[in-house]
Amino acid sequence: MIGISADRPKAQSRFAERLALPYPMLCDPGGETLRAYGVRGITGHARRVTFLVDAQGKVHKVYPKVSPSTHAAEVLEDLKAHVG
Questions:
Q1: pLDDT tens-digit readout, 57-84
Q2: Where do the structural domains in the chain lie, given as residue ranges?
């Protein structure tokens, strides 16, 4: 599990620390990944959407509403179901 944001690294670090996120955050300041997944908002920031993607790049599930502080557990449960 990773998070991707258009925020600068310092802002991402503060966000991740404040919420004690159990996953790494990656920077996409140019927004290429955000555009590819259709989650770049009109302000240039990412909307909070999660994609469960396998090693071959197949999207198994999309979570359009995300609460950063509680969402990891939900995704991990679904990941277990898809990996078996």
A1: 888 889 998 887 778 788 888 888 876 5
A2: 3-83
CA distances in angstroms from 25 to 61, 81, 83, 84, listed in the order given: 20, 24, 23, 26
Query: Token pair of 14, please?
Result: 């503060």
Structure tokens belonging to residue 80: 């277990």
CA atoms within a 13 Å half-sphere pointing along the CA-CB vector of 30: 3
Where does residue 40 fall: left (phi above 0), alpha (psi -120 to 50 degrees), or beta otherwise? beta
For the structural domain made of 3-83, what CATH number should be given? 3.40.30.10
pTM score of the predicted model: 0.69
Helices (H), 3-70: 9-19, 32-36
* Strand 25-27, strand 3-5: pairing: parallel
